[in-house]
Amino acid sequence: MMRFMGPTRTDRTLRRAAAVVERAQPGHPVAPATAGRWLIALALVLTAINLRPAISGLGPVLAEVRADLGMNATVAGLLTSVPALCFAVFGFAAPRLAGRFGPVRIVVLGLCTISVGLGLRALAGNTVVFLATSALALGGIAVGNVLMPVLVKRFFPDRIGPVTGLYSMGLAVGTSAAAACTIPLARAVGGNWRAGLAGWAVLAALALIPWAVLLRRARSRAARRDPLPGRATVATAPPPRMRRSRTAWALAVFFGLQATAAYITMGWLPQIYRDAGVSAGTAGLLLALVMGLSAPLSFLIPAIATRMRSQGPLVIAIGLCSLAGYLGLWLAPAGGAWLWAVLLGVGNAAFTVALVMIGLRSRSGPGVIRLSAFAQSVGYLLSVPGPLLVGALNEATGGWDAPLLLMTCLLLAQITCGVLAGRDRCVEDGH
User: Fold this and answer.
1) In whole angstroms, what is the distance from residue 277 CA to residue 279 CA?
2) How far apart are CA 22 and CA 222, in angstroms?
3) Closest CA to 381 of 269, 287, 263, 242
4) Residues 369-414: tens digit of each pLDDT
5) How far apart are CA 302 and CA 274, in angstroms?
């Protein structure tokens, strides 16, 4: 006889997963053994993949965008600075929005904003519209940056490490895939850069599917009990009091300088290679290599850093790799292109070191929250001018010697601040 008299296994799984989403609001702890979390894990990974293509996918086609829109190098440098500014500005609003509407809904809204912003950016007819739609997409990414760790901890309190690893790998995959595939996507439709960028809007829209399924199930369950599910309120965390801490300032500046280096790399490295005679497709692959190396390193660095009493030697070792990469770009950018990309990829692991040190430099939960907010907010604001200055120097000098000199000076300051931040002391002790 017919075998669909009752709910299928898939239906039961989705309902259980939706129940997890419904309970994953402020004040509702999630049981570690809740079934159906595989769908939530998939949603988290797909979301993480979409938090970087808006940035790394632009570099390989930046020359075509500039030519088509009549964009000068200074404005192009502004494009590489906008991400950090948006992360600092929109990131401040994420906790308040999550407290009012629930973190799941805000992350879903962020994904919608990413998709719409990237789609409209691909249709932009002038520089102003291109900048505005880029900022729209980056606003969605900003709230995702802030709330993704919250969702990982809330949905998987017993699997924070492995799921954070998956989430970090999703970030790396999205970054490197956008860098490597934007040019092939553009060539597949006649070499149109607009199609190459629009493809990432489609990817963001696809990431909405598992969230839509979970929210639909949660809504149907909550409607029987609560007309406004998920609008729980939370106590506002006290503002961080880190302004008098030398360690907090050292960590904030270190975070900002490593972010500066990362945004300069994502925005300008393909152009440095292309100006040296490397093809556009190869330049995109080189950027993909730089960003892709962060995936395995994100698993190795925390284990190394937490075993060290001071993280200064690790900061120096990683910084020397970046320094060698800059030197190679100055002396023979095309001749050793792949080696320089590997060195810069290792240097890019400074981001992971910064995240580890945020946890190590404070011994209490509230202290970590305050230190993280201070270091990342100040750091992202500090990183805004760097890519813009690189673009302005390139336009003023007609080459990359001056920009590389600036990048080297910033790197030396990054190493110095990283060594200071890596000392074995905690902000609660007044250091």
Assistant:
1) 6
2) 7
3) 263
4) 567 767 877 888 898 888 888 988 998 998 999 999 999 999 999 9
5) 34
